Amino acid sequence: MRRWFELSIFAVVLAGLLALIGCSSKKEDKPAPAPDAPKPAAATELNLLNFSEYIDEKIVADFEKSANVRVRITTYESTEEMEGKLSYGGADSQYDVVVAASQAVPRLVRKDIIGPLDHAKLSNLKNLGARFSGAAFDEGNKHAVPYQWGTVGMMYDKKKLPSLEPSWGAILDAKNPAGTYVLLDEMRDMLGVVLKFKGHSSNSTSPDEIREAGRILQEAKANPKCLGFKGGIGAVQDVKAGSADIAVVWNGYALREVSEEKDRFAYIIPKEGSVMWMDTMVVPRRAPNRDLAHQFINFILDAQIGGRLSTFTRYATPNDAAKAHVPAADQSNPVIYPTADVLTRLESHRDLADTVKLFDETWTSVKSR
Q1: Which tens digits make up the pLDDT trace of 164-223?
Q2: What is the pLDDT of residues 280-293, one digit of tens each?
């Protein structure tokens, strides 16, 4: 019995070995793939960090179709929030393209968060207007490409305030504000207009002037007529809904509502002057898809796409070739393209290097109280 059992075990083992040899033989008979055979295409995704409602979904869809990719958009409401997202450990490796305020660009370069652009991949860079192709914040567009530009002003309800004086005092005069109001939740823009109200540069480096601006803003915030700080869209909606009489806003967001109800709403640049801002497109140094990022930026720089972008945002385009594709009514609209007289009262943001720390401290103090 034992001998028979041993022979049985041997037979089972032998059969198993023969089966394995047969399988091996079948695998070897299968032709190996050619060394240059194309690999299955991997799903590619472009990650964009941008302000809310700052790009037409149809433009995004057209890029997705042309590049055969998916675009994932993450939004933010202020430059401070954007920088916070990028500064969080490893977060700069999650985005391919970031729309960033011009004044933030030098700081992002110093922090080694964004890298230089490859101009060889940006054939449409030639479409930029001359004054946008070598801006002082980033000479020669080494790190940033202008996206849109505009102004900071006041949107208000004309039916409630038919005789509003065009002054920042309408909200910053703590003793006699003109009505209920919303302040803009953007540090350099909001402190900048307070500085302009006091006759200073919005790029002041004077500690006394910056602290004075903080005190004025703190008093404006403490006034019972102040409804708090909001991003551009939220502030506009408050005026539209009737909960606020005035809001400090960006011109494009305001214009969408002003255009629909001209008899009720208006947008003005106060007589003391204001801020002229510019947003740019940058590529994080550790972007997962740098080639695709350049492809997207070049797509936005296309004349027709640039025209469609500004038609949607109602902001001014830095793209000279795109302006011909913007509706004539928008091209001649002084809310979008300020008159020569208004331009003399506008000031562009500059990089303030270490002085921005004082802005940060002042802003934090105002917001935290």
Answers
A1: 999 999 999 988 999 999 999 999 999 999 999 999 999 999 999 999 999 999 999 999
A2: 999 999 999 999 99
Task: Tell me the three state secondary structure of residue 194.
Answer: helix
DSSP string, 316-359: B-SBTTTGGGS-HHHHT-TTTS--HHHHTTEEE----GGGHHHH
- Encoded tokens for 348: 């562009």
DSSP 97-116: EEEEEGGGHHHHHHTT-B--
Give the pairing type, strands 97-101 and 274-282.
antiparallel
* Same domain as 110, residue 130: yes
Q: Is 252 exposed, middle or buried (0-12, 13-18, 19+ CB in 10 A)?
A: buried
**Segments forming the whole domain that contains residue 121:** 45-149+278-336
pLDDT digits 0-9 by tens, 93-110? 999 999 999 999 999 999
Grouping H, G, I as helix, E, B as strand and the rest as coil, residue 24 is helix
Q: What percent of the chain has pLDDT over 70?
A: 87
CB 285 within 8 A of CB 115: yes
pLDDT higher than 80, residue 11? no
Q: Is 192 part of any domain?
A: yes
Query: How would you classify the pairing of strands 274-282 and 265-268?
Result: unpaired
Task: Give the total residue count for the chain.
Answer: 369
Looking at the structure of the chain, the number of domains it has is 2
> Residue 304 to residues 94, 129, 282, 328: CA-CA distances in angstroms?
29, 15, 21, 14
pLDDT number for residue 135: 64
Buried b / exposed e along 141-174 (16+ C-beta atoms within 10 A): bebbbbbbbbbbbbbbbeebeeebeebbbbbbbb
Q: Look at residue 328 and tell me if it is in a domain.
A: yes
Is residue 236 domain-resident? yes
pLDDT at residue 303 greater than cutoff 90: yes
Same domain, 56 and 205: no
Predicted TM-score (pTM) of this structure: 0.84
